[in-house]
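Reminder: ligand-aware prediction takes two inputs, not one.
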Amino acid sequence: MRIVEWRERTVPLDGDVRNAVVSFADHTVSIVAAVSDQRRGGRPVVGFGFNSIGRFAQGGILRERLFPRLRGADPDALLAGDGRSFDPAAVELAVWDLEAKLRDEPACATIARAAGRAPTPYPVSVYAAGGYYYGDDSVRRLRAELDGYRALGFDAFKIKVGGAPLDVDLARVEAALDVAGAGSCLAVDANGRFGVEAAQTYGRALAPYGLRWFEEPGDPLDYALLRQLIDGYAGPVATGENLFSAADAENLVRFGGMRPEVDVIQVDPGLSYGITEYLRVLDRLEAHGFDRTRCFPHGGHLINLHVVVGLGLGGCEAYPGVFGPFGGYAPTCAIGGGTVAPSDAPGFGLEEKPDLASHLAAMVEDLA
Ligand SMILES: [Mg+2]
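Here is what comes back for the chain with magnesium ion:
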């Protein structure tokens, strides 16, 4: 068995929104297709992956560096030891999708087997992430946005902070709490915006609300800032979406003051080095006393839903209404009561998401 062709496509990310640091108006994402010599239903089996949300597309490095290396590699080097399956560690996300399709099972089952565990029973916890800054009438529009998420079946929410003065952000938090109903159903995300004094100021102001978590208060690699904040902030702190590796995660829990029973780790396999490295991340975290249910990967999309179910993590996020065609779940994924479940589609089920399926189909329409 062989992967006979590699393809990539750059797709614009929907959503003219911004957080405290980044505007997503011009963002793009890369889709990778791994075309195998295996056939199902008269068509080649193709694995698809994409690079999560929050980085630009990487077509240049794919075309100029990665694909030439893959084409030049010994084909057996891309196989697992038994020679009868592809090794996802060699390429990562698209090959997890390919392997699951060849086994005719959802990717969560393939991921769970690779980790030596059974998939978590469906459904799993999900929260709606949004609460961006709108400019005019931001507080009213924020409330309307969260009301819309509740109508879709979400009962926990996350909003942005740090992109406005503290008094405006607190008005936003209180408007969001009106919809969420309790601090335990509302998280805030500063996207790494603050220095230590601002992080502590926000920490003191947010503490009375008893929020679900305070996310990325400062630079993702400023572990001293994190430790200083946590010293004076009793509530949960969440971070990790901008870390890449098991070594990064270990440094975070060694030096960031993260509390195993309290805090939340958000390393995102598709923003970092993939699911294989994520398995190493979990090993390191567990060695430091963190339960894997403290892990909520950044990135509200189908790939991370399968990772959460396959590995028994705490839950998923979702971005209803923004970050299409990658963000969000397929209509076949039941969302309700604050939970989401993957469908039985083979692989990550990306073909079941209509706005994404058209891009995938266009990448392989010439294949016979
Ligand atoms: Mg975040």
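The chain has two domains: 3-105+352-364, 124-351. The mean pLDDT is 94. We will return to this case in the review session.
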